[in-house]
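Summary of Year 1 activities. Much of the first year was spent building the evaluation harness for sequence design. The harness presents a backbone, in tokenized form, and records the residue chosen at every position. We chose the following record to illustrate the format because it has been used consistently in internal testing since the harness was completed.
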């Protein structure tokens, strides 16, 4: 299918792009670092009591959310705002994989 037949499904203005790329991505990267530290800290606690186990699971789930944010939102914003077709196709394949996996 050629690009003349395809229409743009979404566009990014600079404010939305800036919030996602310049604010959201550094927060997600800081979350990855901090949650890795927490994961290491809470996994060393041998008597896994309820509060410690809760915080360990919370750190794992938050780490997964941070890791999903970066390719899902940041790459999408970069691809659409800069009109990078290659990056958009990579993002689209990733999004279809995540969507398909979530439906199983």
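For this record, the design step produced the sequence shown next.
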């Amino acid at each position: 299918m050629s690009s003349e037949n395809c229409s743009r499904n979404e566009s990014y203005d600079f404010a939305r792009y800036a919030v996602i790329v310049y604010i959201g991505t550094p927060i997600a990267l800081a979350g990855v670092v901090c949650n890795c530290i927490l994961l290491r800290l809470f996994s060393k606690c041998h008597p896994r009591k309820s509060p410690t186990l809760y915080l360990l699971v919370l750190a794992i789930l938050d780490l997964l959310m941070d890791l999903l944010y970066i390719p899902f939102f940041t790459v999408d914003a970069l691809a659409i705002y800069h009109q990078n077709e290659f990056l958009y196709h990579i993002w689209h394949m990733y999004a279809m994989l995540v969507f398909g996996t979530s439906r199983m």
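The radius of gyration is 18 Å. Quantitative recovery figures across the full test set are reported in Table 2.
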